[in-house]
Recover the amino acids of this structure.
């Protein structure tokens, strides 16, 4: 059986689950006390997006009630206040991720835009004909397509680290792909389709020995483990705020200053310039060089209390609780006749992909929804993973620290309803 360890959980740093009062925590999330189809909501689609605590909702409402103004532009008080709050979150993030400076934190629209920014800006300048870029079989489409587009344009070659039947990367294959031609590596930290925690530390170590830049897609790791970008040693780390209990429409790109400095702007427009004339435009300094136009101000400001919230809970306690719940969920799924798990990775975080024998995942998802249980079904924007496992789609359950064992029991009961309907 694979170890269902939460991403990056530190051995020997056990925290009692009783210290983690999930019922108190649930009071902070108003949506968890609502009903769907007349049934209490059981939200198990956390890999798609997480729910928001009241402090985040309040902050966004407060912004619109008391602060709303454009940033970096006005001499008036509201604009200054909005700018201070917005830049305050950048500072907070830099400290949170242990970046060496807030200049290394770029706000984007999401993980997808952050990867596109790097592929477009770094890639178009530094990738040339015949160069090779390594990604893995476990990537989300947003870490495949931008690199494919770049390779097509530059006549470069995309190399893909193989995955085994368990959903683990073939690390021997990875090492065999490294060569003089390798000019960039972009890998997912935790697979959104199978929950596999990839050995990104090993990938980064091998890349560093050869001076190859590495981007880590942290869309599914940042909410389950503490990320220290300097300890990790990656050059770029990207994630979406909406998966970290914060508003939608905000992404974060951490980039090493040395690399960001030598990258050209991604988009042109307001705020990213130092001066503009028809003859010549000069660009703003970091991080503004990469933030053209009015950003999602309230979204960024809403990320501040989300960071405070999870820091107050603490990742030791979060991981310990989530790990316990993940193991519990796995036992239930493995012990239910007719359930087929897809992938048994060595280290798993938050996610199980499964199928019910003879039942299409979409039907499973629809009937669970009628019972109040929200899961995701489909290819999870990871079609190569589906193809590798020989299935068109799976049902996916993904947990968070606000889920309970009672909810997992109810989910298990609801699976029996699905079997009954299709008997
Ligand atoms: N995965 C899921 O249900 P955006 O859409 O830009 O916020 O995130 C894209 C993305 C990139 N990488 C990984 C590993 C992801 O999981 C996601 C988003 C969601 O699995 C929506 S498809």
């Amino acid at each position: 059986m694979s170890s269902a360890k939460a991403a990056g959980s530190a051995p020997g740093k056990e925290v009692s689950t009783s210290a983690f009062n999930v019922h108190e925590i649930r009071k902070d999330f108003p949506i968890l006390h609502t009903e769907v189809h007349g049934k209490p909501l059981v939200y198990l689609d956390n890999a798609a997006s997480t729910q928001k605590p009241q402090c985040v909702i309040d902050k966004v409402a407060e912004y619109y009630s008391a602060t709303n103004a454009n940033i970096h532009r006005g001499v008036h008080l509201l604009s200054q206040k909005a700018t201070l709050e917005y830049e305050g979150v950048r500072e907070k993030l830099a400290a949170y991720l242990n970046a060496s400076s807030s200049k290394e934190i770029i706000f984007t629209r999401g993980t997808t835009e952050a990867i596109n920014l790097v592929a477009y800006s770094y890639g178009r300048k530094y990738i040339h004909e015949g160069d090779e870029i390594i990604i893995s079989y476990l990537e989300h489409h947003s870490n495949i397509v931008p690199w494919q587009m770049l390779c097509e344009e530059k006549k470069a070659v995309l190399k893909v680290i193989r995955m085994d039947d368990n959903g683990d990367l073939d690390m021997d294959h990875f090492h065999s792909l490294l060569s003089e031609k390798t000019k960039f590596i972009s890998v997912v930290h935790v697979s959104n389709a199978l929950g596999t925690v990839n050995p990104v530390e090993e990938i980064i170590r091998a890349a560093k020995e050869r001076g190859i830049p590495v981007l880590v897609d942290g869309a599914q790791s940042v909410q389950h483990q503490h990320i220290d970008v300097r300890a990790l040693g990656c050059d770029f780390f990207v994630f979406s705020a909406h998966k970290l209990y914060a508003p939608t429409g905000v992404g974060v790109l951490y980039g090493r200053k040395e690399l960001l400095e030598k990258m050209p702007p991604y988009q042109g427009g307001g705020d990213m310039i130092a001066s503009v004339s028809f003859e010549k435009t000069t660009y703003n300094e970091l991080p503004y060089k990469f933030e053209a136009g009015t950003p999602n101000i309230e979204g960024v400001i809403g990320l501040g209390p989300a960071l405070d919230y999870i820091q107050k809970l603490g990742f030791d306690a979060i991981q310990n609780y989530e790990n316990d719940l993940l193991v519990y969920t796995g036992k239930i799924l493995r012990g239910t006749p007719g359930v087929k798990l897809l992938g048994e990775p060595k280290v798993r975080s938050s996610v199980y992909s499964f199928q019910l024998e003879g039942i299409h995942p979409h039907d499973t998802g629809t009937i669970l929804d009628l019972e109040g249980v929200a899961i995701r079904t489909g290819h999870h924007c990871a079609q190569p993973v589906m193809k590798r496992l020989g299935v068109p789609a799976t049902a996916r359950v993904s947990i968070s620290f606000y889920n309970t064992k009672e909810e997992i029991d109810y989910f298990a009961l609801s699976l029996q309803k699905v079997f009954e309907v299709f008997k």
Notes: The chain has a mean pLDDT of 95.
